[in-house]
Specification:
209 residues, alpha/beta, five-stranded parallel beta sheet, three-stranded parallel beta sheet, 7 helices, 16% strand
């Protein structure tokens, strides 16, 4: 998305693996930070400001307060979750589970917070299943409660594919559940039909930046 837009506009750019050690060459230059770790972003903003650089933060999580001078471009995860739950409801699916949430991932936590706020449960936290270092243990926590759900929202395609494979091992047809992959790599494009995958429009993301 971003590099495509830069190439389309014939703008020169450089990809840095580390933070700069000097100020940007001129006032027409821009510095874009791409990261999901809040602590690292905070440190990076402070470092950039010390070099009189006003960075643009590109993130897939809701804006969080950070000390310093910066601009912020983000996707609207809460709105996308509300849209997804509305779509599932129109398909007759009213009992969703959220599966494969990595508690160390800020985008995943933003997804979880949006689900808890938007899902029509008295306590939606009870219907969130975590990938705390192991998708296998996530499945083991989820499977005893599988009859409670008619659809599953997976944190990414890796979690969705893992879920389908584990269901097959239990001789449980994945077709009995509507499985949705929320963002992430497009593994589902190479997987059997029955897995619905949604992702962010990276082209629009790049244009906004």
């Amino acid at each position: 998305g971003l590099t495509h837009e830069l190439n389309r506009k014939r703008m020169e750019f450089q990809i840095l693996r580390e933070l700069p050690t000097d100020t940007v060459p001129d006032q027409n230059s821009y510095f874009i930070l791409i990261a999901s770790d809040l602590q690292w972003v905070t440190t990076a903003v402070m470092h950039c400001n010390s070099l009189k650089i006003h960075p643009i933060i590109l993130s897939c999580q809701p804006r969080r307060p950070i000390s310093g001078l910066y601009s912020y471009v983000t996707s609207d995860i809460p709105q996308s979750m509300r849209y997804l739950l509305s779509y599932l409801s129109k398909q007759g699916k009213h009992r969703p589970a959220l599966y494969g949430i990595n508690p160390a991932s800020l985008p995943n936590l933003a997804c979880k917070e949006s689900f808890v706020e938007a899902a029509e449960y008295p306590d939606a936290n009870q219907h969130v299943y975590y990938n705390d270092g192991s998708l296998k243990s996530c499945f083991e926590a989820f499977y005893p409660n599988i009859s409670s759900y008619d659809c599953v929202i997976c944190a990414n395609d890796y979690a969705a594919v893992s879920l389908i494979r584990n269901l097959n091992l239990q001789q449980f047809s994945p077709k009995q559940l509507l499985i949705v992959s929320y963002g992430g790599p497009l593994l589902s494009a190479h997987f059997p039909a029955g897995l619905l995958s949604i992702s962010m429009c990276y082209e629009e993301f790049g244009k906004a930046a």
